[in-house]
Amino acid sequence: MITVTIPVFNEHDNLRQLFDELVGELKALGRDWEVIFINDGSTDGSEALLDELADKETRVRVLHFRRNHGQTAAMMAGFDYARGDIIIPMDGDLQNDPRDIRRLLAAIDAGHDVASGWRVKRKDNLLSRRVVSVLANRFVSYIAKVKLHDYGCTLKAYKRDIIKDVRLYGEMHRFIPIYASWHGASICEIPVNHRARKHGVSNYGLERTFKVLLDLIVVAFLDRFMGKPIHLFGGLGFLSFLISFIAFLVSVYYKLWGGKSFIETPLPMLAGMTFMTGVMFVLMGLVAELVIRTYFESQQKTTYSLKAAKNLDPPEPLVSKASSRSA
User: Fold this and answer.
1) Are 272 and 248 in contact (CB under 8 A)?
2) pLDDT per residue as tens digits for the range 18-40
3) Is residue 283 located within the same domain as residue 165?
4) Residues 250 and 239: beta-carbon distance below 8 Å
5) pLDDT tens-digit map of 239-270
6) How large is the greatest C-alpha to C-alpha distance in the chain, in angstroms?
7) DSSP per-residue codes, 42-84
8) Is residue 327 part of a domain?
9) Residue 125 CB: number of other CB atoms within 10 A?
10) What is the value of pTM for the model shown?
11) Calpha distance 215→193 (Å, rounded)
12) Is the domain of 255 the same as that of 309?
């Protein structure tokens, strides 16, 4: 089954045309399908229209949020309620073309786990959207080591087993291919059509770029230090200790051979402050290690991702082993 998920926020004038195009395209595919609209607290009448469309086609389902939670939360809700083996998110503003769905599905059928849309010819403002997007995508690709031309394109196709354990926060919906790559997913990029917005107002602005960059810092941290946070905090701690030691030696040099007492230079204060900073970094690393171990062990998560197994039974949960020993 194919599940198409569509976050909606004040897209009343676009929904009926999107419904007609999308349902027509899905019926032509000859596969089982469903569409999930996630109404993200719309105030323009989208709620009533979505209910009307759902009454018209039973394979169209609707989730209504009590208030606006943002695109990432809406996409997460769509993933949670999706029943398909292939999940395809897309925008509700008609800028994504439903006819591109079959091209994404062809890439999935060819063996890829993720087919990511690439808006080669974008119909957006040159400076505020396209130029910024090119720079941002290059930066994200460099940091994440997953090279894509268009992280911001919502139109993508995912195999369900690749994203079933992904939890999204902030503006992290655009980083799903990075999460997938952590699980060894095969990712390809498919050029897709991009249409100019006809109705409504875009909810994107330059301020969102800064939010994305902050979320990228989180993603980079999770990628490199999720299982070993002490390596980051401990490294910063030892760097602080090194600065403290150098400052102390220089202050002693000035004291003995430079004719300056400790109170005449800021070096002793710098040595003390950086030493305490180093101690704090190391302690933060230890706390982070305890948090990570609690995260994995309390939820019985593993630090590895298993693709397949043969002639092996699933491991017995640690909890059951502990309870059997106590008995």
Assistant:
1) no
2) 999 999 999 999 899 999 999 99
3) no
4) no
5) 999 999 999 999 998 888 877 888 888 889 99
6) 89
7) --SSHHHHHHHHHHH-TTEEEEE-SS---HHHHHHHHHHH---
8) no
9) 11
10) 0.74
11) 27
12) yes
| DSSP-derived 3-state class of residue 303 | coil
Beta strand pairing call for 156-159 and 114-119: antiparallel
Range of the domain at 38: 2-225
Q: Are residues 186 and 286 in the same domain?
A: no
End-to-end CA distance of the chain: 45
Residue 188, C-beta contacts closer than 8 angstroms, at least 6 positions apart: 107, 112, 114, 115, 116
How is residue 311 annotated by DSSP?
A: S
Determine the Cα–Cα distance for residues 151 and 96; give it in Å rounded to an integer: 14
The kind and range of the H/E element at 86 are strand 86-89
Q: Do 189 and 249 fall within a single domain? A: no
Q: Is residue 2 classed as helix, strand or coil in its secondary structure? A: strand
Query: 45 to each of 11, 14, 174, 265, 293, how far by Cα in Å?
Result: 9, 12, 27, 68, 47
Q: How long, in residues, is the chain?
A: 327
